[in-house]
Amino acid sequence: MRIGFKMPLCLIDDEEVQVSSILDASFRFSGEKTQNVNNEVYEERLFKLIVSHERSLKQAEVSGCVCVLLPQLSDKTLLKKIMLEISSALGGHPSTNIYLYPYGQASFLMALGRIKRELVSSRPTWVLGFNAKNDDVNGSRSSVVAAKCEPSKGGLFSRNVCVDLDATQQSIAVEKVMKQLGLNCKYPVSDFTVSVEGEEPIWMHHIQSFSPWITSDTRYHFLNVKLGSLGACSGILKAVCLYQQQLNEASERFHAVQLDIEPCGYVVGALFGRSEEEDS
Predict the structure, then answer these.
(1) pTM for this one?
(2) How far apart are CA 232 and CA 42, in angstroms?
């Protein structure tokens, strides 16, 4: 199943951003409307962000299977509250099934398996992402994303997804995921999309796991450098950008790696190719 995306809604700090702009090498999000967060606790700001975009969700006509990407949360009461609010915003239709993925930056790739299964069954499938600004995170921005997933001839084929979690030392989980992806890799990597956080990101210490597939022609995409830290919305935007880039270029050599690392949380990586035939 090759997956394509249509993204009717992408807001960063309440400013609309187009994928075509993100793909521009010189683009940097200005954040002219950015304001400091108030004194509310983060969970309250997140819930208010969701409530404030109820109208936008209705206009997008979201239905079917809805995968909701959220910051890393464990409060079951809050998650139930969010579930009810989103259900209300979408009209509470019994045929709409909502699934929450509260894993921060790892949320989209954690949801990818369900997305693929739902598309195979021909159900309308959507991804909603919400991230409230957090002043404790460098470069954090609020973001809201709605993307419809659909089968597409020029879409992304997910060849492998690897997940790991290490509660004491995240570098171990990063090493395991990258090593497994490197073992599963069969072609030179054309694109590597990942976030750069801090002076020495953990993943840089394990890039040799992709030897000899990382070459001088490999392009690196650092979405957070362009847009800021978008938390739970970052994974879906990385995938949408890879998809749109491939639509524009139709490269025969497209073989991409997406790596999503949630600090103190899950580490998830995926290999994307052009078609199912690559695994034969």
Answers:
(1) 0.94
(2) 14
pLDDT in tens, 181-240: 999 999 999 999 999 876 678 999 999 999 999 999 999 999 999 999 999 999 999 999
Instruction: Count each helix (H run) and each strand (E run) in the chain, helices first.
Output: 8, 11
Domains of the chain, by residue range, sit at 2-151, 156-279
Query: What is the topology classification, in CATH, of domain 156-279?
Result: Peroxisomal Thiolase; Chain A, domain 1 (3.40.47)
244 vs 195: CA distance, rounded Å: 19
Which residues 6+ apart lie within 8 Å of 139 measured at CB?
224, 228, 229
Spatial separation of the C-alpha atoms in residues 85 and 82, rounded to whole Å? 5
Nearest to 273 by CA among 154, 151, 163, 105: 154
Residue type, 43: E
Domain 2-151 has CATH 3.40.1350: no
Structure tokens of 89?
A: 């915003």
Interhelix angle for 234-249 vs 107-120, to 10°? Answer: 60
